[in-house]
Amino acid sequence: MVGSMGIKWILDPLKNVVSELAKLMEGMRQSIKEQSVEVLQLEYLELENAFLTIIFGGLVGMPLMPLGLSMELAPYLMEEVRFLESRHARGKDTIGDFFSSMGGEW
Amino acid sequence: MTLEDLAHAIINVAKDKPHIVTVIGKGGVGKTTVSIMIADILSKKGKVLLVSLDQAMHLLKYLSLRRAHVVERVDGELYAIQFDLETEARKFTGEYSLLLRQIMPGLKVLNVEKVTDVVRNSPGFEEEVYLRFLSKLYDDDRYDYIVIDTPPTGVTLRILNLPRMYMFWLDNLIELRERIVGLRYAIQRVIRGRAEMRDEVLDKLYEMKENYVKLAGMITDQGRTSYILVATPEPLPVYEVKKTINVLRELGTEPVGIVVNKVIPWELAGKMGISGVQLESIMDVDAIKCRTSTCIKIAILMNEKPPDTLEKAREAMVKTIPLSATIKHGYRSQSSG
To answer: Nearest CA to B36 among B5, B62, B65?
Structure first.
């Protein structure tokens, strides 16, 4: 009786540890899965944004400008485009953008 | 009034070289024939380039040109070129795609191979190609006169309207860029204590605006550009002439002449049962009130076969008569019928 109580006293916490460990492992697995598609999701969201902007841009005052004018201006906007691209790549890093907009080393 | 009178009216108003003569009309009314005739007459007075922008490419056959997109001497001081939209469009798509690849390597995500297709199929791209070619023609002072056989009316009017549309865009872009430059200047002054007001992009925008204002001005300056409208004596081509005049007036110019081409001899028209429609259409053109004294209205009688060579076009010119005379003949034939 005392022996079986003794085993239960050891087994129950062990079960809890194993169960918690399993949950941790499951969490880690889920996290790895989510991380692996994070970049794809970002790209998916940006493409969806671009798609909707192209289709509905005109309805919200964003008409597409004539191609000839864009191309004539393009060589003068190379630096701005690179800046836009790098900002686009950071995407959700709002805090990073905020600090960088304040300038200096952070 | 004959085609000679029309050509002389053009010579009289022409100020700078090259003077551009733009021949506009519905598809199939004989724009190419009229362009050849006018260019031929003008070539007796100076060096003339006849350009066909019409992608039906009749000029190749009519003047026996060896190939499209190359200037060839036809006769005396008359030179001709059949503009090839595809060749010019390929040149532009190539340049644009290269530029886009350099500027936005990120476009690879969107499959960079498709960029060329995107450029080629963008709305307004063809009109843009035409406009750039037209702009180059205005600067080509090797010729005294450049006669342009245009694509069908709708496309032509869109091309003529483009500089105004571009000016609207540029005005808005300039306003926005001036705000950006102003803000940047203020921020730099606060942070660094000194700032640069000059902006390369803004300078380029001013330069572009100036170029398009100049082009729009030349398109509507009667000393630089003359418009000849061509119709056949049928309701729809005449309707298009009226619409074109309205657009030209909105732009701030007037046609120098209206040519009613392929007028069927009245006797034959009577037999065909179309003399009524023909007379009505010609009278409709005659009733168009021109705001300038130089607007000349003439008719060209129909040939048994379309004049598809320079020689035949010269022969056909003899059949040019004043529009008022055609109407008199028409009335006479109607009353005798």
So the answer is: B62
Among A66, A76, A78, whose Cβ lies nearest the Cβ of B169? Answer: A66
What domain count does chain A have?
Answer: 2
Same domain, A48 and A70: no
Q: For B213-250, how does the pLDDT look when each residue is reduced to its tens digit (9 = 90+)?
A: 999 999 999 999 999 999 999 999 999 999 999 999 99
Q: B3-88+123-336 maps to which CATH number?
A: 3.40.50.300
A76 and B200 within 8 Å at the Cβ level: the answer is yes
pLDDT tens digits for range B286-305: 888 877 666 788 888 777 67
Residue range(s) defining the domain that contains residue A100 = 65-106
- Phi and psi of B22, rounded to 5°? -105, 120
- 8 A C-beta contact, residue B260 and residue B234: no
Domain shared by A69 and A39, yes or no: no
Compute the count of residue pairs across chains A and B with CB atoms less than 8 Å apart: 53
What global pTM score does this model have? Answer: 0.79
Specify whether A59 is located in the same domain as A87. no
Same domain, A54 and A69: no
B122 touches chain A (CB under 8 A): yes
What are the C-alpha distances in Å from B275 to residues B29, B234, B238, B278, B331? 18, 10, 16, 5, 10
The token pair that represents A10 in the structure block: 């050891």
Token pair of A18 as six digits: 């194993």
Cβ contact B226:B20 at 8 Å: yes
Query: How many whole angstroms separate alpha carbon A42 and alpha carbon A89?
Result: 9
ipTM of this complex: 0.73
